[in-house]
Amino acid sequence: MDKARVVVVGAGFAGLWVVRRLASEKDVEVMLLDRHNYHTFLPLLYQVAAAELEPEQIAYPLRGICRRHSNVRLAVTEVRGIDTARKLVRADGLDIPYDYLVVAAGSRTAYFGVPGAEEHSFSLKTLEEAVCLRNQIISCFEQAALESDPERRRAMLTFTVVGGGPTGVEYAGALAELVRAPLRKDFPELDMNEVRVVLLEAAPGVLGGFPERLRGYAKKRLGAMGVDVRLDASVAEVTAAGVLFASGEHLPTHTVVWTAGVRGEVVAEHMGLPLGRGGRVAVLSTLQVEGLPEVFVVGDMSLPEGQNPPMNAPNATQQGRLAAENILAMLQRRDPVPFRYRDKGAMATIGRQAAVVRMGNFAFSGFLAWLLWLFVHLAYLIGFRNRLIVLINWAWDYLFYERAVRLILPRRGCGTIDSRKREAAQGAGDADRPGATCS
Amino acid sequence: MDKARVVVVGAGFAGLWVVRRLASEKDVEVMLLDRHNYHTFLPLLYQVAAAELEPEQIAYPLRGICRRHSNVRLAVTEVRGIDTARKLVRADGLDIPYDYLVVAAGSRTAYFGVPGAEEHSFSLKTLEEAVCLRNQIISCFEQAALESDPERRRAMLTFTVVGGGPTGVEYAGALAELVRAPLRKDFPELDMNEVRVVLLEAAPGVLGGFPERLRGYAKKRLGAMGVDVRLDASVAEVTAAGVLFASGEHLPTHTVVWTAGVRGEVVAEHMGLPLGRGGRVAVLSTLQVEGLPEVFVVGDMSLPEGQNPPMNAPNATQQGRLAAENILAMLQRRDPVPFRYRDKGAMATIGRQAAVVRMGNFAFSGFLAWLLWLFVHLAYLIGFRNRLIVLINWAWDYLFYERAVRLILPRRGCGTIDSRKREAAQGAGDADRPGATCS
């Protein structure tokens, strides 16, 4: 019998773990589709945006993964939809036939319909966005150094992070450290008391879902690092000039980073798959789409019947592995088994020697938690060279209170004066965030 | 007496060496202006475009340099012109007064009026351009992997470098090595015999200015590496489809890299300075502008009376240092001294264990030349962390015939399908090279 053709859409954690599980199987042929030619290690994305790591260090070329397996092929293309009747994936310039399809396109930022949020705030979901944000932060300092009007200068130097989840907490902490030492040394002409990192959380506490003790620790720690943590703060509108609160109060700020929510990638809609809560695809407990036993949806996109697993890396890898197992089961005429999320805990780092870790009922914080965080992230980072260079950068920054990557490398839609002006002159469109600039 | 205000335009080698020389002087205040907030180590730029190094590794934050000196300040801004009567530099958003002005804005690519050359070829003068070119190379391979038409595929896999000077030779060699091992492993579905690296030189030999023996060695070596070296090949036109030769012959290629010439930066024209050959500024032998004793022009831009020094790093550093010396001389009521270019030789690397070095009348090639090349470039690279990580990358690539940075990170005007489509849809303007894409 000829090989079963498995097409995997998306090379995030979920997609890669499907590929890994099927790589060794003789009677399966895998075609991996992604719009990028690299896998992005999202857990460290915020460090790219905080000028701690270079984008290349948390990305790994997919070809480097696929070439190890003779039965895995890669196509770098944009998936537009699927034809479930003819079992085809419609991608840019080609139709790809499948026997089994695994959709793992991940998630995008959710703005909950807050006016101006999408147009005027930075998102932190892709490598490009992270570099844009890094450029924005450094540009604001460069421009503030030339700004004589104190009010405008203060708005330029106010960095607002919306959302007190792990991403928001980690990025606010990283920003505070970037400002505190490296940028203080870089900008002697600036009064660092004018610099503010503000973390906004609509709930009464940060790190929802973490044990009370850790949440208290995180808030205290962030405060000690100089982060202005505002709880019960719900954002009514984001404008080019700043943030308007439900309370009517206005915060002048030129940089708003939106980490408040995620929803399933839009491609699910293009595919006409049944959508559930948060733009996620409602699937059976076996991760199959009802009525389409050969179509699986895994990772952030997937909402298994009667469950609501977190949209994180452990869930993605677990679902990816199970989808692969279920495909193999069906090939062997066995029944697919239902998915059960195994909670291995959660962790978040706040700053040097400060992190929070929950493992089962076991919760701890501080230096040991921080070491464990470092170890786990290095261990999961793909590519030995990446690990080595990331380790060097971390050690360096830790020892010398320094940052390597303080460069403004303009790219499309990035918040730097020059690129802005050029793009404005050319009337470039949606990729611009008119408000998200210090000009 | 209050301090003399020296304004330096441009943070390349010439500008930085001015700053370094004046940094320790008590009665001088230096203001460094650049459109970027980093210094680019141009001698290794081609390695970024060949996916050998990450852009951050050959760039160094100017703040990191300036903060070491209490009398040096930085402004990241675009210089638009000068007002020599009122002794002002006109920059974006601010006018900067000077007592002494040193213009070191460098050079740009010269296309010699060849039709289509500027629109349809990649340039290799800035970090952004290098990353765009890297994206283009990898994108062409990704798209060729999906292309069924053999003719289109061959054009996608034909990479043409125009200009047999050091940059062209080094880049052609680096491309050949990128193709030969790393990309061969990455793209098992492609027939590598369809891949061509073509080096075009209008003169009868490559590396003009180098001793005959080294020029022969370089050509032989490039040929052995699979580079199709074409001498006496003068380009009549560049189109989206390829290169048209004066002979009437046509070479179908989707990627043309133009390294055939450089001319002084355009800002010299905006400044209304007297232009000489190659858009360089005609200055006195003291590097002062005639009639403007307080204005110096140094580096690639500068054409000292009766001399024609090479537009390279040694010349830039020598001129920068001399301009600084002459300013100090004038402050001490001494006469400025004339510039004399001291030729320390030249070097170019072709591939692993293959380079050419000329020192005075002493010329050698091969392994030792290659080691010397590595050593000199590491030594001049600014920033110890950069040196360390570059060394790791070089060692890694050398040992494992591998490349770390095989990522397509789209940026404005970069040759990737997606970004192209988006920008086309938005009718984005001049930053695009309509032809320089594989779509």
TrEMBL record, chains A, B:
Stored SUPFAM superfamilies: FAD/NAD(P)-binding domain
Domain FAD/NAD(P)-binding: 5-320
Keywords of this entry: FAD, Flavoprotein, Membrane, NAD, Oxidoreductase, Transit peptide, Transmembrane, Transmembrane helix
External alternative NADH-ubiquinone oxidoreductase-like C-terminal domain sequence ranges: 344-400
Entry EC no(s): 1.6.5.9
Reaction catalysis annotation: a quinone + NADH + H(+) = a quinol + NAD(+)
Residues annotated as transmembrane: 362-382
Cited InterPro entries: FAD/NAD-bd_sf, FAD/NAD-binding_dom, NDH-2, NDH2-like_C
One Pfam family in the UniProt entry: NDH2_C
Signal sequence region: none
MF-aspect GO terms: NADH dehydrogenase (quinone) (non-electrogenic) activity
Protein family: Belongs to the NADH dehydrogenase family.
PANTHER family assigned to the protein according to its UniProt record, in alphabetical order: EXTERNAL NADH-UBIQUINONE OXIDOREDUCTASE 1, MITOCHONDRIAL-RELATED (PTHR43706:SF47), NADH DEHYDROGENASE (PTHR43706)
Protein name: NADH:ubiquinone reductase (non-electrogenic)
Organism: Nitratidesulfovibrio vulgaris (strain ATCC 29579 / DSM 644 / CCUG 34227 / NCIMB 8303 / VKM B-1760 / Hildenborough) (Desulfovibrio vulgaris)
